[in-house]
Structures are given as structure tokens and as C-alpha cells.
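quick one before i forget lol
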Amino acid sequence: MPTGRLAAGVHSVGRSAAISAPSAGPVRHAGALSRYAAAKPYVLPESLAELDGPTTGGITLPRHIDWGPHYVYDLADEADFRLMYERVIREAQTRDDLNAYLHAVSLRRVWQDLFLPLPVRAAWEARFPELRESSTTAAAAQWTNCTAS
């Protein structure tokens, strides 16, 4: 959970913060809590409804979000789509960054599959419990489908 408000929509999660994962289903996160991940400020939208980014086409992220080699994310490719969402969620500096590159319906669809640091996942799920619930529901549905066969 966020422990301090840095600026509008920016949160820092302290190292000693209690972070709880959903009780059902697998949670994808970036492993052990690093000092960087614990102290890094993350930007959160006020509501998921404001996320109206693209859902098709090729996207090149700005350098402040994706500082690696120039890359065009093909949103038709599921791996590219998830990778772009992970980078935007982890590296966005403003709400405008989130709004420009994330789409609410798409975010709900891929949330459980995103590889995110625990503090950022916890911050998003604390503000938007429906993300945690959609992950838990989807994980339960996957488990049911696996056991039925």
C-alpha cells in the first residue's frame, strides 16, 4: 500500500510496508523486494476510466519511459502488448503518460499476466481493487478449466 504521497498520483512504497498478495491464484511479480522498487515513486491514475490509450497498431514509447534501444511495440502481438504495459506502469512519470499508453479494458484483461514489482502491483490494486478481483477471478477460471480436462 502507498505510504506517502509525493505529488498528485505519485506514491512511494516504503521498505517496511506490508504488502499482501491476493489469496487465490498465481500472482506475477518481479520477485524479491529490491531497495529501488521499494523506494521508487509510481504514478497512478485517478480512475481506470481515464486510461484511453491505443489498442492497435505500432507504438514507440518516449525515452523517459523506455530508454533502451528504439523499439516499436506491436499491439497485435500479446508479448509486445504486455511488455509495453509493464514498462509504462513501472516508468510513467505523469498521469498523462498512463493515459496516453494504457487502455482500461485492456489493462483489466492482462493485469494478472503482467510482471511487476510487488510495490507497484500493491499500489495499483489498493487503489483499484477490481484489478485484484479480476486477477483472482481469471486465475480461478483458469484453474477450473485445467482441472476439468
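fyi The first strand starts at residue 4 and ends at 7.
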